Amino acid sequence: MIKTSFLNISSEGFTDIRDITPDLSRILNESQMENGTMTVFVPGSTGGVTTIEYEPGLVKDIREVLEKIAPVKADYHHHNTWHDDNGSAHVRAALMGPSLTIPFVNKELTLGTWQQVVFIDFDTRSRSRRLVVQIMGE
Question: pTM higher than 0.85 for the full model?
Fold first, then answer.
């Protein structure tokens, strides 16, 4: 069986990191599936999804490291193409990736003890996002 749901998120942009684990657990519970896989996908090219230990120090570390790798104030060719300011958002999203697949067993996501699923919005403005959550299982 396949079930597709959507997760709406209001984001501040600028590497806003949101723990979406409780939302995913709720969606899984509502699916009434016992075992299978859940895929979370971010439509668009300025957001990403990954897993981290969601705690304030690491959230700050991720923001600082991404600023070193793809600084917001750098000159990106993308800015010249579209006359906007979010080249760093596109680079960061490409590095992070737009999707994540998580197995679930007995209606539980198989995440580690200190592992949470996070959505990261890299864009240079606040936004409303609609993530796709697709569950395949039985």
Answer: yes
